[in-house]
From TrEMBL:
Keywords: Endonuclease, Hydrolase, Metal-binding, Nuclease, tRNA processing, Zinc. GO terms for molecular function: 3'-tRNA processing endoribonuclease activity; metal ion binding. Its cofactor is Zn(2+). Homodimer. Residues 6-110 form the Metallo-beta-lactamase domain. InterPro entries: Metallo-B-lactamas (IPR001279), RibonucZ/Hydroxyglut_hydro (IPR036866), RNase_Z/BN (IPR013471). CDD domains: RNaseZ_ZiPD-like_MBL-fold (cd07717). This is Ribonuclease Z. It comes from the Bacteria.
Length: 266
């Protein structure tokens, strides 16, 4: 329902990353998998999470989706270490070990480096053939027929710097994640409680809005999104006020909100 409401095409979803096996983070998966089958999906769907995820869902798939027109591929993630769990030509995904009541990890999504931009006047001046353009975009120099090396910086300008997004779901305050998410462009960090309830936060392995902001500050994040608020609080503005007092560029995660990460030069 949320995908339709926010006009996200079902066919664009090829990889699903599950942080941990608590119901509010994985119970909807079976329904989505079944719906995709009813819609006629044929491409493989890759699902990443703790090794128990496959043990839990495979019997349900065998019972409810035995005639499904596409294949589910499970990928076990070691939630105790940070490691590369997925990579293609556009993005890399690393796991982020978190501290919760069950094995849990967040995920760091980082764009692959983009190609350099060609300087047309220089390309024309050196009469660079088409066959050499791809290599020059990747940072290579150009060698003339006379053996003269034309360095890449004379032929190109840097492309945009790779952008990054870190998703840190349920977790108690832990500075161990800071080196993994250092300088991240956009950080989502749970903020279940307010600062006055930080003893309860520690007991239940959750964080406060202030603690989420402290992580963002230590990591030198450019923007922070907080969410996963306890229903004991009726005024969500209190979370934003608390976090902003520590980390100014903070926003609250609300259904349907969109957050942009601007491009910047390298």
């Amino acid at each position: 329902m949320q995908l339709r409401k926010n006009r996200i095409r079902f066919t664009r979803i090829n990889h699903i990353f599950i942080s941990h096996l608590h119901g509010d983070h994985c119970f909807g998966l079976m329904g989505l998998v079944s719906t995709l089958g009813l819609l006629g999906r044929t491409a493989d769907l890759h699902i990443y999470g703790h090794e128990d995820l496959e043990r839990i869902f495979q019997p349900q798939l065998n019972y409810f989706c035995r005639d499904m027109p596409y294949r589910i591929v499970f990928h076990a993630v070691n939630t105790s270490v940070s490691e590369l769990v997925y990579e293609d030509h556009k993005v890399k995904v690393h796991s982020i070990p978190l501290k919760h009541r069950v094995p849990t990890c967040g995920y760091l999504f980082t764009e692959q480096p983009s190609d350099n931009h060609l300087i047309k006047e220089q390309m024309d001046f050196y009469q660079i053939p088409i066959k050499d353009i791809a290599g020059i975009k990747k940072g290579g120099d150009f060698i003339t027929d006379d053996g003269v090396v034309v360095p890449n910086h004379l032929l190109t300008t840097p492309g945009p710097a790779p952008r990054s997004y870190a998703f840190c779901s349920d977790t108690k305050y832990t500075e161990s994640i800071v080196p993994i998410i250092q300088d991240v462009d956009l950080l989502y960090h749970e903020a279940t409680f307010l600062a006055g309830d930080e003893k309860l936060a520690a007991k239940t392995f959750h964080s406060s809005a202030r603690q989420a902001a402290e992580i963002a500050k230590l990591a030198n994040a450019k923007q922070l999104i907080i969410g996963h608020f306890s229903t004991r609080y009726k005024d969500l503005s209190l979370f934003e006020d608390e976090a902003v007092s520590v980390f100014a560029n903070t926003a609250i995660a609300k259904e349907g909100c969109e957050f942009s990460v601007p491009l910047s030069t390298r």
